Structure of TRAP transporter small permease protein:
Amino acid sequence: MKALRRIWEHFEEGFIVFLLAAMTLVTFVYVILNNLYSFFYWLADAWQGASVPLFAIGDTVMGMAQTMTWSTALTKTLFGWLIFFGLAYGVRTAGHIGVDALVRLTSRPVQKYIGLLACVCCLAYAGLLSVASFEWIQTLMIAGIGAEDLGHVGIMQWHIGLIVPLGFALVFIRFGEIFVRILQNRQTGLGLADEAADALKLAENEDDKS
């Protein structure tokens, strides 16, 4: 079980890296192509006696840039997948910001009960959105609508939107794990990020360096 969990966590991190890398690569190529053809045109005007067909190269690069109209849609899709897939990753790594200043003023048993209540609310929220978005995906599947600028390669709208129920289902699982850990007294709250504590640690590190 631990091995499967470790494999999934590595896949989770690797998939997020892949989404970020793919977004960066597609955007980089599109920007380069949109600025490169003008360079070849300028070079052809400045070096008219060149044996290399610089105008033809510029036309080719421009044609490649014009055919990449799908790049914006693909980048938006990758970004959407990054957001919803990263929700569960943020829960696991305490990436979401928590506001629990008042909760910490209470005793540890009270913090545990508040943590359980908050966890139940998060489970209800994630479960509700997962089920509702799955019904939305079923409607898109029946409609069979192609994705904007990506439909010509067989990508449908439901392919893109599938990450919404999947992402919230993963969030539901992560909060279920937190709920169990709170019951087992392995933690008291949701384990969210504390900006104030992080700021104090940074300030202390800066003082130590100086």
Q: What stands out?
A: The two ends are 46 Å apart (CA to CA). DSSP finds seven helices and no strands in the chain. The chain has two domains: 1-67, 96-209.
